[in-house]
Amino acid sequence: MTSWTAPDIERHEGPTNSAEHQALQEFLQFHRDTLLFKCAGLTGAQLLVKSVPTSQLTLLGLVRHLAEVERWWFRRCFGQDKELGDLYCTEEYRDGDFDLAVPENAEADFATYRREVELADAVAAGRSLDDTFTGRDKEYTLRWVYLHMIEEYARHNGHADLLREAIDGSTGE
């Protein structure tokens, strides 16, 4: 029996001359693709390799974490779906996205991530960047959500670079 391997992904460059909403969507998609690019070709076990023994940070944990973040900001907050629960995190396991990841569930976790991205995009489609919602006792705009998500991915893609290098020496891109 062969183990599942994260599929290859084709990344497209970010926008160079797009309207603001399209540019934000394209930059966010580039960062989403970058995370998956860093995982491509790795098995479930490799996706759980830690670069620092004292940390729970892994590539699979990042995929699970960013599925949670996509769900939180786009669907729960902006989409106002207050009944929507967390995917992996619980009261008992507040970092369940990282702490409870297992290689046998890698394929399902990737499918969940892709589904959350699709659902996040659906919530934002056709909406104004100036549309607002209240969360954490502050008012936010959809524009802020895009910018925050791009920042979130950029930071975690830096982690993904280091994790991938520790696994097989792959760097850059």
Q: What do these coordinates show?
A:
With 173 residues, the chain is mainly alpha-helical. The protein contains 5 helices and 2 strands; from the N terminus they run ααααββα. It has helices spanning 20-39, 59-78, 96-99, 106-124, 142-168; strands spanning 132-135, 138-141. A two-stranded antiparallel sheet has the order 1-2.
Question: Which characteristics define this entry?
Answer:
173 residues, mainly alpha, two-stranded antiparallel sheet, 5 helices, 52% helix, globular
Which helices and strands, and how do they pair?
Elements lengths: L19 H20 L19 H20 L17 H4 L6 H19 L7 E4 L2 E4 H27 L5
Shape: globular
Strand order of the largest sheet: 1-2
Oligomer: single chain
**Helix/strand/pairing class, anyone?**
mainly alpha
What is the percentage of strand-forming residues? under 5%
**Unreliable stretches covering 5 or more consecutive residues:** none
Main sheet properties: 2 strands, antiparallel
What's the short version?
This protein has 173 residues and is mainly alpha-helical. Helix content is 52%, strand content 5%.
